[in-house]
Specification:
Order of helices and strands: HEEEEHEEEEEH
Strand content: 15-25%
Strand order of the largest sheet: 3-2-5
Largest sheet: 3 strands, antiparallel
Radius of gyration: 20 Å
Shape: extended
Number of helices: 3
Distance between the termini: 51 Å
Number of domains: 2
């Protein structure tokens, strides 16, 4: 096993700005330890470039930013959905389904707004 330490790269604002390209807010957070979480400032996209250096030290370890752009800092409503993840299983208890059946059920669910 090698004793070479990996190069530690600092937080950079440019990738965050590539994801968040419109009006709205970017949430930030960090882990304090294995069980504790701290919410950091929710920054307006338009001010992120200028404000980022002020809190970059808080982002150097176990920090996260929200992928989807928030409408307001105190609201979970999104301005922009930048990414979406869905776990689609092709089976229910005792039966296998086709991809078409599962996708059709997803479309029906969206239409019903469930």
């Amino acid at each position: 096993m090698s004793n070479i330490e990996p190069e530690i790269l600092g937080p950079y604002v440019k990738p965050i700005l590539r994801i968040h390209q419109d009006d709205g807010y970017v949430p930030f957070g960090r882990k304090l330890d294995d069980e504790s979480w701290e919410n950091l400032p929710v920054i307006p996209v338009k001010k992120l470039q200028a404000m980022f250096p002020q809190f970059v030290d808080e982002l150097t370890r176990d920090s996260y930013f929200g992928i989807n752009t928030l409408w307001r800092p105190d609201n979970d409503r999104l301005t922009r959905l930048n990414a979406c993840w869905v776990d689609i299983d092709l089976h229910q208890a005792g039966q296998m389904e086709t991809i078409g059946q599962v996708v059709g059920r997803v479309i029906d669910t969206v239409i019903r707004r469930e």
